[in-house]
Amino acid sequence: MLNEILAIFPPNLKKTVEFYVTNHSHVLEEIRVRIGRPVEFTINNQPYFESYLPSAEDALFILNKLSQFSIYMIEEELKKGYVTIEGGHRVGLAGKVVTENGQVRVIRDVSSFNIRIAKQKIGISNQLIPFLYNRYWQSTVIIGPPQTGKTTMIRDLARVISTGIERSKIPPFKVGIVDERSEIAGAVKGVPQHTFGSRMDLLDSCPKAEGMMMMIRSMSPDVLIVDEVGSEEDCKAVLEAVNAGVRVIMTVHGYDIDDLMKRPTLQALMKLHVFKRYIVLSNSRGPGTLQAIYDEHYNSMKTSAEKSLIENSKG
Question: Which among 194, 189, 183 is positioned nearest to 156, based on CA atoms?
Answer without folding.
Answer: 194
